Amino acid sequence: MKKVYAALLLAGLSGLIFAGDLVIKSGNIYQNYVIMGAAPTGIRVFYNNGSGDREVILPVKEFPDELQETVQKFARKTQEVKKEELEQAQAEKAEKAESAKRAKSTAERNKKSAEILKKEQENYKKTQDEMRKKIKPRKSGFKKN
How would you classify the pairing of strands 21-23 and 29-31? Predict the structure, then answer.
């Protein structure tokens, strides 16, 4: 049973890793390449052209037809990542909009409260003035010389 699992594991890894030359549709050649996985803008490929290891991110449409099936697996992961980022950005945008809406509502309530308070103060002042008019001034018990 262990041999079967080992064989399946090796078969799966061989589907992801290649050795040899990768000739893309634009004509560029990448020697001793290895497909490493999805990147936000394409598929990450490591290669060695004799002067050291290099990395390049290639668009899915640049890969040859015989690799399209393998590359599409990685492309789906890239699309899922983009979709998650888009959903997160939309959620943040909605949260900011809701926050701005709450702030605007609070400002409007504060403005109305200030107007109501000002009217109450004016009414209170009028009431005090009317009461002062109704009260007759008292005469002082002291005589002025």
Answer: antiparallel
